[in-house]
Amino acid sequence: MGIGIMHSLWRPRVLGAWRVPAAGPVILAVNHAHNIDGPMVMGTAPRPVHFLIKQEAFVGPLDPFLTGIGQLKVDRASADRTAVTNALAVLENSGVLGIFPEGTRGEGDFSSIRGGLAYFALRSGAPIVPVAVLGTADRDGREDGAKGGRLIRALPPLRSRVDVAFGDAFTVGDGSGRRTRQALDDATVRIQERLTAHLENAKRLTGR
Q1: Alpha-carbon distance 208 to 96, whole Å?
Q2: Do 83 and 130 form a contact (C-beta atoms < 8 A)?
Q3: Considering the domain 3-206 in this protein, what is its CATH number?
Q4: Which residues are CB-neighbours of 86 under 8 A, at least 6 positions away?
Q5: 51, 156, 173, 198: which has the fewest Cβ within 10 Å?
Q6: Residues 161, 202, 1: CA angle, nearest 5 degrees
Q7: From CA 104, how far away is CA 130, in angstroms rounded?
Q8: 15: Cβ–Cβ under 8 A, 6 or more apart, which residues?
Q9: Which of 2, 12, 4, 5 is closest to 166 using CA atoms?
Q10: Residue 105, Cα to own-chain centre: how many angstroms?
């Protein structure tokens, strides 16, 4: 989805997009509170983003569409080696990989993140850019979608403001390239600290 579509439905305000490295492999670590978080980042990021998306989303006409724009199908119920290989290939080709570290939609507060982000970061050496999407989970409390200004009731009210804040890039690991369980656990702790700090800062900057 392009930024034109995002602007036609909502009012995205993009902060810090310049923090995304202009070239080379990058991992965008995005909080996840609503289904439109991924499309919102895809439509506002300064570079094309390849997200790991649950395979259940690849149904009907969405399957060729998502595949055609380079999104990556992942089976969350198993260790999906094909998805891992495809994600690493994006980074090996100096692309941008998008990940929801929380694994699924929730509060979007990075309170619990999975180890996959640390694995990709350690394996590839790519920097991580934290991304906070704020406003997609806002509700106006009305049951009638039309009255609430929504195209679909589950979506944020049409023309409402959504903030997309990109943070400073950082790397994890000690430079040794180790991917032991302890190294992954240590990296996950450091990543969570950085993501949480960015989210809190983004809330202060945006008044959310």
Answers
A1: 27
A2: no
A3: 3.40.1130.10
A4: 72
A5: 173
A6: 45
A7: 17
A8: 163, 164, 165, 166, 202, 205, 206
A9: 12
A10: 11
In the structure encoding, which two tokens stand for residue 46, read together? 């300064």
Q: How far apart are CA 137 and CA 202, in angstroms?
A: 15
pLDDT tens digits for the chain (208 residues)? Answer: 445 565 666 678 899 999 999 999 999 999 987 778 888 899 899 999 999 888 888 888 888 888 888 888 888 777 789 999 999 999 999 999 999 998 766 667 787 788 889 999 999 999 999 999 998 665 544 433 343 443 444 666 665 678 999 999 999 976 666 678 888 888 999 999 999 999 999 999 988 7
Which two tokens mark 91? 């980074």
Q: Which residue carries 């094909």 as its tokens?
A: 82
Place of tokens 């380079």: 70
Q: Say if residues 157 and 150 touch (Cβ distance below 8 Å).
A: yes
- Tokens 């997200």, residue located: 51
Rounded to whole angstroms, the Cα distance separating 201 from 132 reads 10
Of 137, 148, 113, nearest to 40 (Cα)?
Answer: 137
Maximal CA-CA distance, the chain: 57
> How is residue 23 written in tokens?
């070239």
